[in-house]
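Ticket reopened. Same input as before:
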Amino acid sequence: MHHGRGSGIYAGVKINGVKGMNDVLPADVARWHEMESVAREVFALYGYREVRTPAVEHAALFARGVGEATDIVNKEMYVFEDKGEELLALRPEGTAGTVRAFIEHGAFVEGPQKWFYMGPMFRRERPQKGRYRQFHQIGCEAFGVAEPYLDAEQIALLADYFARLGVTAELKLNSVGDAQCRPAYLADLKAYLVANQGALCADCKDRIERNPLRVLDCKVESCQPVLEKAPRLLERLCEPCRTHFDQVKAGLDALGVAYRIEPRLVRGLDYYVRTAYEFTSDALGSQSAVAGGGRYDRLVETLGGPPTPGIGFALGEERLSMILEKVGRAAPERRPAVFFVSADATGALEGLRLAAALRRAGIACELDPRGGKMKAQFKQAERVGARWAVVLGGNEVATGQAKLKDLQTREETPVALSELAARVAG
Ligand code: ATP
Ligand code: MG
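Engineering reply: fixed in the latest deploy. New output:
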């Protein structure tokens, strides 16, 4: 994959890609197509429609829409001044831009809407397995419905999606309450964390004031004993939040979607309310989350739209791709059906012409424009994985007859060139 890296044998100056930003090479792209085409297929079954928003937005959108207190905005965002005029940012996530577009185009006047997106996101994190600086997300956002069966339906959509791909992922579910029940809880949580901060890591200590819920999400081993015993919001939900949560669970039960209640699962932002969920996979190692979602009933309002409840998730394509690789679900690349081998100059030109005709008929074919020894051309046919080879020379062109060679069985059968397309189709 890294031929020639550091070898210094060529004259030019080699410039490598940016750290934490990956190439997806042709051999892997089929898997990406599968992730994305199955997403389009499944999401459409649930009435989600695709939206495409820019990779660059005003930095202020994320400060408001993701939150200044989050690591994403605080530490990880790529921000730049556009020729000294405006402060712009590479999007670190897809929800803020989707909500901006939803508001900007007045989509809310049409009532409830379900949208999805896919594309690159950028965060200046420390690159490691499953964590990159450019990565790709597929996300769904549903606007305008606060009722819990929507939550259950969206979670089921994601479960369906994984099932279609042959992926096993575990669903973790929680409720993070709302403006009714959370403030009193947060006060207690803060007091508890302050009292125990001696046993917490530096990041946790840092977050107690800024974003105490997020502390619960810390993965550092030495913090676990304190976090295990922290007060639980799930036990203190107000009545409406409790009922909502019960109905989300009832919906999931009815849909046959299994879940595990995870009282420490959070979305650490103010406008996140009630339902929080995550899908994890053992195939991933320490970066085990493949998708995360939650209800954000105040986000549209926060970004200047009318009060509009919403719920959404984002799924990491690099992580899903890693799982697919493990479960051996690499979709096969398309191979050419026919490889034209030229015996002479007349045959080479006929190969060029026939290949074009077959391609117009939707049949993939190849030839070696270098011509050269037939043996080398046959080798090339095998390397590209062609199913058949046809040798063309002056004789074949004159008679309109050639031989169709099956490259697996080595069997040769006569074929009229005028019937070639029909013979190899399907
Ligand atoms: P994590 O806890 O893994 O850092 P997160 O809470 O930052 O995740 P979200 O912002 O909710 O993640 O993004 C949703 C999904 O996007 C994650 O579950 C993960 O699959 C993927 N993701 C997030 N950050 C990265 C990254 N830097 N590189 C690759 N994938 C990522
Ligand atoms: Mg993160």
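Residues 93, 123, 125, 130-132, 135, 137, 287, 289-292, 314, 316, 318-319 surround adenosine-5'-triphosphate (ligand 1) (CB under 6 Å). Residues 26-181+237-326 form a domain with the BirA Bifunctional Protein; domain 2 fold (CATH 3.30.930.10). Please confirm and we'll close it.
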